[in-house]
Design a protein that fits this description.
Layout: H1 6-39, E1 50-53, E2 63-70, E3 79-81, E4 84-85, E5 91-95, H2 110-113, E6 118-124, E7 128-129, E8 132-134, E9 138-141, E10 146-151, H3 169-179, H4 183-197, E11 206-211, E12 216-222, E13 238-243, E14 249-252, E15 269-271, H5 277-281, H6 295-299, H7 315-323, H8 350-357, E16 394-402, H9 408-411, E17 413-418, E18 427-430, H10 453-466, H11 468-503, H12 505-537, E19 543-545, E20 550-552, H13 560-572
Amino acid sequence: MKIKTKKARRFYFLFLPVLLISLAALLAAVRAEKNVADLGLGQPADNCTSILVGKLASTDGSTITTHTCDCGQCDWTWRHVPAADHQPGEKRKIYHISQFKAWSPAEGLKWDLYKNDFTGLEIPQVAHTYAYHHGMFGYINENQVALGESTIGVVRKLENETPTPAFDLTMLTIIAMERATTAREAIKIMGELSEKYGYGYYDSGEMLAVADPNEVWIFEILPVGPLWSPRTGKPGAVWCAQRIPDDEVSICPNESRIGEIDLNRPDYFMASPNAISCAVENGLYDPKSGRPFSWKRAYSPINESAQGSQGRYQRLWRFFDLVAPSLQLSPSTPNMDLPFSVKPDRKLSVEDIINFTRDKSYGTPYDPTTGIRGGPFKNPNYYRQTRNICDSRAEYTTVTQSRGWLPNPVGGLVWISFGAQDTACYMPFYAGVSELPRSFSIGDHWQINRDSARWAFDYVDYHTQVVYSEAIKDVAAAQLMYEKTVIDQLPDLDRRAAELYKKSPKEAIKFMTGFCLNNAQTVVKAWWTLGDQLLIKYNHLYHYDIEKRTYERRFPSFPDIWQKAVKAIDIMLEPEGKK
């Protein structure tokens, strides 16, 4: 292609660096994904982030966990499971439950259909199982034991996709919810069951944030290879857990987070008996090397940094920079060398954590709206080379709180947000509520359903994408009205529920259930209305004022850099013979 005029040459050379930078970013992303693929570390597209907050690092003394349940096509439904008493000698059936499998609504609900995949294993049932709420995993039970999740992957030779292991992650979390009274107990239950009966099949390396009112732990569990069977006499899983110091916070962004371990400090470390020996046997660690054993370097090494991966692996650095900017951690620091946890510069509220789940890395080198990345309306979802804490493919996001100064049914909370965090609304549910909304239990990606809560939030999200920089302001106003208001009301609601619980637990549960159901119904209805309003307000890229019944062209002036880029490309693509 000949560049005929000075003006054309000027545009070309101005725009050429943009093209070269974009190409470099693409190559870096390919290299990063190849490194992960070569090691067999989970799924490179995973974007489920889990934040962990110790009780002395939060403003109110609660421990906090989060989970962004990313997928884009998975089942998003929720249900409440009541407590139950069981007869002596009763058995508990164990099922294979895929994180990713979903059924058509015409076939039935996932939480009925999964029972068709019975492993053949029945374990002794306990005398009493606790009530809990669950989506893809168990999230909180009536004892305030709470969970969050993030896939971390494992070196390829340890993957076990055979059906021999009886347990996958979802089933482990459900059993933990049924039986655990503390975080440590939940970890021991999951660890012992996976050792005895095997772990894997649907799942590879996984991390769980495990919390109770006093402690929060990172628990990582891995399969031990496709040749394992109970007949080997060896543990069918390898796992390790490390406690977050009470005054610190941590995060798991699909990367193993546990480094050097000290099993002589049981208040901070727990592990399976093969935690080190499994690595030695598989050539992943040489005890004669003189180097201390590092869990993550042996089993799930991702040798990337935020800068080196062009933002593909920037969530770890980004979170620490958000909560502790005084540390001045460099984005060029390999993630393997970043700290396990940090003390935040200030204590964090649940509102802070909710805002962190919506973070898009604005103002950083990995800002998805820089230059022309976001198009004329600064849409952060166009440029997919970086991975942000906020995930546009989220099925839902959870924020759990465990609060020791309140009775367990009142102290435990799970906040649920359906769909992309930036366009949704968090709704609280006490651990003690006796039911979840019916609208939470139905719906799928392939059939719009106005009886399904999730579709209300997708409806708003879809209409926000068109004119993101404008429509997100309307969404933020709705979040202020329906989310912030509840956050501010919560201390009074807690007090009333706790006082009522002392007098009558049944009445307290009725009060909490009524509030949570009514609030969720109000929010879902408001989001359907908001979606309609966005469609009307920004129709045809004009501004339709519903109250004044007027319309005007509101978007004639797009960002200069975007307009210049369009002109530069137009000139570059001009036919040879055009004058």
